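Technical note accompanying the year-one report. For the benefit of new consortium partners, we illustrate the data format agreed upon in the data management plan: each record pairs a sequence with a structure-token string. No post-processing was applied to the example shown here.
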Amino acid sequence: MDISKKKPFFPVSHLLKRYLVDIGRVKKLPISYADLLRYSDGFPLMDKHGNNTLWESVIYSVDAIQEFNDGLTYIYSLLKTDGDMSFMQHLYVDRIDYCHFGNSKPFRIRIVNKFNDNYDYFYVKKTDASRVYGLELEYILSPNRINFYVDGDTLIEEHIPGIPGDKFMDSYTQTPSFNKVRIAKEFVKFNERCFVRLLGDMRSYNYVVDITPDFEDEQYRVRAIDFDQQCYEGRKNMYLPQFFKENIMVVDFCSEVMTPETVEQYRQEERVLIRRRYETAQHRFQKLVHCLCNDELSTKVKIGRLRKELERYHKKSFSDCKNMGQILDLHLKLILSIS
């Protein structure tokens, strides 16, 4: 299944910006995405096994280093302590990485605590309306919370911890503690979360697996880390991770350890949880969907195709849906049985 080769960036509309201001997502940032593009050199970043990570560690002039250190540690404090720098004086910027791969071309900032060498990351990206909608829908409808802020053309996001899905499939599935049944169950639930909110392109390197030790075993949580393909693709199956060849191993696990009845049980469980989150944040969700319904996030061809495919799936007419926002609103209400 082929994903769109290059999704265009969509600007944040006036209506969406007003929504972001109202919910406190707009902040004045001391460092912009454009500032970080002023690097003078770089070198490939290798992992501990000597493999190229597709990230490049970039180098800046001496004059820029102090400016970036102060500005980026302040941005980190916005994500963690709402800008209170009294808790951040012992932090410094250890490394800035840049990724040429993918649509967003992000910068990854590594922040280190000089007292104990503990480190954390956050990301600086170009603002894209699709990604902003995806992040906000993740915050409202998923079991996860993620902080992000926008300042003009600059978007900052906190790091989502976990093992990248492709690395999890390659190595962790061979460990003695690996639980095939539990990862299959979580993948079914993740698959359903993506489909309900129309988040596309969940190939294995676009999500992470968060592992939590339990008193007898391990629990898994699959979390999306790429939100660029929110409400963009025209094919229904693009919003179902099970149809990507990169996920074939975990799909095989599901077929091996689950009956169709069990799969349907887990899908229904996840829909109930999403409906409860929707009901809790219904006012916020409707304000966001109002922005979506007045925005252009895809092409007429893709909108028309998705409308027809969802009509066949739901056996309901989507003929009144003129854009992706209206399609998402109706699709979510039908799938969650919301009046």
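Partners are asked to follow this layout when depositing records. The longest helix spans residues 260-280.
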